[in-house]
From TrEMBL:
Source organism (scientific name): Heyndrickxia vini
Recorded GO MF terms: signal peptidase activity
Residues that span the membrane, as ranges: 14-35
Family label: Belongs to the peptidase S26 family.
Top-level taxonomic group: Bacteria
Compartment(s): Cell membrane; Membrane
Membrane topology category: Single-pass type II membrane protein
Protein's name according to its UniProt entry: Signal peptidase I
Amino acid sequence: MSKQKNELWEWTKALLIAVALAVIIRYFLFAPIVVDGSSMMPTLQNGDRMIVNKLGNPDRFDIVVFHAPEKKDYIKRVIGLPGDKIEYKNDTLYINGKAYKEPYLDKYKKDLPEGPLTEDFTLKDTPVGQETVPEGEIFVMGDNRRFSKDSRHIGAVPLKKVIGDTKLIYWPISDIRLVK
């Protein structure tokens, strides 16, 4: 009888430890997310399943997940960091006056029937309403620039609303890969 109680207790401890580890990993380290919509095409497709890394701070051109004003989670690309001056001219991104290439947009730009993928704007033209990205906030945009609700519409995103960054698509199996 004592041996059975001891074995049951050992199994119970193992199960409790496994559940505790799963909770810690899920809420503090990594979380799954499903891409909903076409705002990040062609980089991400509707229905892609990804892992969000909750550790660290987002860097320029990272793909991040954040709590949007509409009580939804959005997935977008970081374009501007705190203190950056952002501008688009002739379908080219300028950060602090320096032109940047965006190779993740090349496929879309090539397939466009006409006009630019990204319309000209400065931060003053957006809800940010000032020359630079405010401290403690980031400026984000979807890769599908013509059909993305992003910082051009909702303003800069407070860093405290960022859940984490994501690079790994794990589903569908045929699309497993790291994204850039």
